[in-house]
Amino acid sequence: MFDKLTGALQDLFRKWRGVGKLSERNVQDALREVRLTLLEADVHYQVARDFIGRVKEKALGREVLDSITPGQQMIKIVHDELVVLLGGAHRDFDFSGRPASVLLLGLHGAGKTTTAAKLARLWKKKEKKVLLVACDLRRPAAVDQLRILAGQAEALFFPPRPGEALPDLGRRALEQAGRDACDVVLFDTGGRFQMDAELVAEVRELREAVRPGNVVLVLDAAIGQESVHVAETFHKEVGLTGLILTKLDGDARGGAALSVHAVTGCPILVTGTGEQLDNLEPFYPDRMASRILGMGDVVSLVEKAQQAVDVKEMQKMQERLLEDRFTLEDFLEQIQQVKRLGPVENLLEMMPGAGMLRGRVRPEQAGQVAAEWKKAEAILRSMTPGERRNPDILDAGRRRRIALGSGTAVQDVNAVLQQYEQARRMTRQFKHMQKRLLRKGR
Ligand code: GDP
Ligand code: MG
């Protein structure tokens, strides 16, 4: 979603790297370009203006550090201010209530119901007992949608009675949650295509009835500038404690994400990055800032890797590697683990330095990488376990047989064996890198 913005900022930074001295004049010039870039990305004009003001103040008021060039210092100031713009420190939901309660609000199609199920699943994984309450009474299909999603998320589900008023439904659900000793109650409300008095009245009534610890607005990041207006209005009329941005996987320009914290003062808690229930990510302003600036999101990548990769398996592999017993069996396992991390594009986005690849790696190319992995997997599966454990016995005859069995050519088999050699070398390096990162991440 931030591809264009990142590209533009990196072009700017490349120019700055050479700057030897920060003067009023060149800071002014540099900042004019940053401002245009932000506006281009659909950042709210007032937010952009304030942002530039703060960066300028810091750039001109600060002693130049010896260790970095003035250009690098500018980049650092922009980064730090971007973190502030996105909300500073990471914030989570308020779980202090017994049960904790979350009211999800937003316009029609913003992603409330989907997000409710994603949150339920996330919390379920953390051993919380979650009750999902269907409060969209206007559309009958909405109740069924939540019922099905609740099933997928393995959460408890609470439907309305026919003709029941919202506040009654809310109170009844809270009682039930108390009886069932639930940890969290999530109210999935109905939306409208736009803010109007009726929606506001409805939401206020429900809020009065259930007094939720969290009043969270779900915002579709793809609606751009409009989302700033929606967030302002909801905050003024209802009072919010947090924000959720959905559809960050889309190709909108990202300005909304950069503006909504500034205009409401509310933290962005999580973001939606796809239609699947797993596509929910906690929001870290510093990581997002680094990602926007193309510095890569190393910490997220490592965390994600830890989640998806079977840690025990990985350790076993590393032990074997150290003892130089890393075989093609392990290589096959490794390919499968990497595949579990998700689509290649997502991985690239999080890799440090991959910003340079941005715009150069097209979706087709990412698809090509995925196809390569698939081919390698087929080849490895066409080998016998004995061959995988002892690649040295793979003579020309065996290679021909494997190519035939996997529907590939002998060159492909040779290529995979070369990759295996490389992987052996790289895994050794990766181990060192991972250790270093984990130490830094603390
Ligand atoms: P609601 O009206 O606010 O309850 O919105 P829904 O939860 O029904 O979602 C509306 C549409 O947006 C559905 O098609 C969802 O699959 C889709 N959607 C929700 N969140 C995301 C997201 O993070 N990324 C993408 N690509 N689609 C999403
Ligand atoms: Mg809904």
Give the gist of this structure.
Helix content is 59%, strand content 9%.
Describe the structure.
With 442 residues, this protein is α/β, with parallel strands linked by helices. The protein folds into three domains: 3-85, Four Helix Bundle (Hemerythrin (Met), subunit A) (Up-down Bundle); 100-295, P-loop containing nucleotide triphosphate hydrolases (Rossmann fold, 3-Layer(aba) Sandwich), CATH 3.40.50.300; 308-441, 434 Repressor (Amino-terminal Domain). 59% of the residues lie in helices and 9% in strands. The chain is built from 19 helices and eight strands. It has helices at residues 3-17, 24-40, 45-61, 70-85, 112-125, 140-153, 166-179, 197-210, 225-237, 255-264, 285-292, 298-308, 311-322, 328-340, 344-350, 363-381, 385-389, 396-406, 410-441, and strands spanning 100-105, 130-135, 156-158, 184-189, 214-220, 242-246, 268-272, 280-282. Strands 3-2-4-1-5-6-7-8 form an eight-stranded mixed sheet, with helices on both faces. Helix 3 crosses helix 4 (70-85) and helix 16 packs across helix 18 (396-406). Guanosine-5'-diphosphate is lined by residues 106, 108-114, 191, 246-247, 249-250, 272-275, 279. Residues 106, 108-114, 191, 246-247, 249-250, 272-275, 279 line the site of guanosine-5'-diphosphate.
Order of secondary-structure elements: HHHHEHEHEHEHEHEHEEHHHHHHHHH
What gap, in angstroms, lies between the N and C termini?
28 Å
CATH superfamily of the largest domain: P-loop containing nucleotide triphosphate hydrolases
For the largest beta sheet, what order do the strands appear in spatially? Answer: 3-2-4-1-5-6-7-8
Total domain units: 3
- Overall shape: it is flat
Beta percentage is: 5-15%
Number of strands: 8
Return the average pLDDT rounded to an integer: 83
Proportion of residues in helical segments: 55-70%
Bound molecules: guanosine-5'-diphosphate, magnesium ion
CATH architecture of the largest domain: 3-Layer(aba) Sandwich
Q: Within the CATH hierarchy, at the fold level, what is the topology of the largest domain?
A: Rossmann fold
Largest sheet: 8 strands, mixed
Unreliable residue stretches = 352-358
User: What does the radius of gyration come to?
Assistant: 26 Å
- Indicate the structural class: alpha/beta
Q: What is the helix tally?
A: 19
What kind of oligomer do you see? single chain
What is the CATH level 1 assignment of the largest domain?
Alpha Beta
